Amino acid sequence: MTGRRRLPVATLLETAFERNLDAAESALARVVEEDAFHLAGVRSARFRTYLERPSQMRTYLELIYPPRPRFPPGGRARLYEMWDAAPRGARIEVTESLILNALRRR
């Protein structure tokens, strides 16, 4: 949550996505190891979205193509608890990571 400082609430779980990501990373490593491509570069960035209240979290998550992330046990309750104690004008910051791998054909 954001106000004057950031306080992490929870890391959303994306079990199916993590499996797909692991498989994609393995496939990239394999084509580089087989010398079909070489790694031209890797860039990472963070994409931030700001929500005005907890009720917007459900809508935000529903916009994500399935499989959708979910709160870990106790995560949603922690969000509401922190929101109740947050100063006026605080916002919820949802941060997503983006990693781009560039390959070049040999």
List the defining traits of the structure above.
single chain; 106 residues; alpha+beta; 3 helices
Order of helices and strands: HEHHE
Tally of helical runs: 3
Overall pLDDT: 88
Percent in strands: 25-35%
Total individual domains: 1
Q: What is the structural class?
A: alpha+beta
Largest sheet: 2 strands, antiparallel
Rg over CA atoms, rounded to whole Å, is: 18 Å
Strand order of the largest sheet: 1-2
Distance between the termini: 46 Å
Q: What are the segments in which pLDDT stays under 50 over at least 5 consecutive residues?
A: none
Large-scale geometry: elongated
Relative helix content: 25-40%
Number of β-strand runs:
2
Task: Describe the secondary-structure layout.
Blueprint: H1 15-33, E1 37-51, H2 55-62, H3 75-85, E2 92-105
Antiparallel strand pairs: 1-2
Describe the structure.
This protein has 106 residues and is an alpha+beta fold. The chain has one domain (15-105). Helix content is 36%, strand content 27%. It has 3 helices and 2 strands. The chain has helices at 15-33, 55-62, 75-85; strands at 37-51, 92-105. A two-stranded antiparallel sheet has the order 1-2. The longest helix is centred in the N-terminal third of the chain and has 19 residues, at 15-33. The relative contact order is 0.32.
